């Protein structure tokens, strides 16, 4: 979860931060082994 | 999202990091030198865009991973500490601000050292990712 947090919240406090797109979020989840319908944003 | 919204949002994070509690439009406006009404409008816009959540009383309730209201989860780094929205968010605060401790309803949950979390633990998420914002307080 810590490593996921690092990626999920990267840049979150920056003024120019934008939420990840569904594709970007899916890539972050997949990088940390989180796959399947539960983690799908589509 | 206007440039002002972005500035307001950034200011809220600065306030949270500085451990300012009970952050509302008046607090943000005072910090930024803005009109309270302008900040209120911006906060509503930010909440509508899921950049943060507001309590019924107008406090910033969540600026993830920080919680603006007391919760059972805290992250601490040295003598500084913050409320988190959940166990995951408490770890996330440490990932943003440095090594420290996470405490929860049962006491100390984790300690991080150079990004390594000890002990191993389990975070149980019950809300599917696509529904995180449907009831973000429950999530």
Describe this structure in words.
The complex is a heterodimer of chains A (42) and B (139). Chain A contains two helices and no strands. Chain A is an all-alpha fold and 42 residues long. Helix content of chain B is 34%, strand content 23%. Chain B has helices at residues 3-17, 25-32, 36-48, 87-97; strands at residues 53-54, 60-63, 66-67, 73-77, 80-84, 101-104, 107-113, 116-118. In chain B, the strands form two sheets. A five-stranded antiparallel beta sheet of chain B has the order 5-4-6-7-8, with helices on one face. Chain B has a three-stranded antiparallel beta sheet with strand order 1-2-3. In chain B, strand 6 and strand 7 (107-113) form a beta hairpin. In chain B, helix 1 packs across helix 3 and helix 2 packs across helix 3 (36-48). Chain B is globular and about 45 Å long. The model of chain B has no long low-confidence stretch (mean pLDDT 95). The interface between A and B is medium-sized, with 22 and 28 residues.
Return Rg of chain B in Å: 16 Å
User: Can you give the mean pLDDT of chain B?
Assistant: 95
Give the helix tally of chain A: 2
Task: Bin the helical content of chain B.
Answer: 25-40%
Number of alpha- plus pi-helical segments of chain B? 4
Q: Supply the helix-strand structural class of chain A.
A: mainly alpha
Number of strands of chain A: 0
Main interface by residue count? A-B, 22 and 28 residues
Protein structure class of chain B: alpha+beta
Note the main attributes of this structure.
heterodimer; A: 42 residues; 2 helices; flat; B: five-stranded antiparallel β-sheet; 8 strands; 34% helix
Secondary structure layout plus pairing:
The complex is a heterodimer of chains A (42) and B (139).
Chain A: H1 2-8, H2 22-31
Chain B: H1 3-17, H2 25-32, H3 36-48, E1 53-54, E2 60-63, E3 66-67, E4 73-77, E5 80-84, H4 87-97, E6 101-104, E7 107-113, E8 116-118
Antiparallel strand pairs in B: 1-2, 2-3, 4-5, 4-6, 6-7, 7-8
Helix pairs in contact in B: 1-3, 2-3
């Amino acid at each position: 979860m810590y490593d996921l947090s690092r990626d999920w919240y990267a840049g979150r406090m920056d003024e120019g931060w934008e939420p990840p797109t569904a594709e970007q979020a899916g890539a972050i989840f997949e990088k940390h082994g989180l796959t399947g319908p539960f983690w799908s944003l589509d | 999202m206007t440039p002002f919204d972005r500035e307001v949002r950034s200011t809220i994070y600065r306030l949270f990091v500085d451990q300012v509690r009970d952050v509302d439009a008046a607090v943000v406006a005072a910090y930024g030198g803005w009109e309270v009404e302008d900040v209120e409008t911006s906060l509503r816009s930010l909440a509508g865009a899921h950049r943060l959540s507001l309590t019924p009383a107008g406090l910033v309730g969540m600026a993830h991973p920080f919680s603006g209201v007391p919760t059972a989860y805290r992250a601490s780094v040295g003598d500084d500490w913050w409320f988190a929205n959940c166990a995951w968010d408490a770890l996330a605060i440490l990932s943003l601000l440095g090594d420290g401790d996470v405490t929860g309803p049962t006491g100390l949950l984790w300690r991080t050292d150079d990004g390594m979390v000890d002990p191993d633990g389990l975070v149980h998420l019950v809300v599917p990712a696509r529904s995180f914002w449907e009831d973000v307080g429950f999530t």
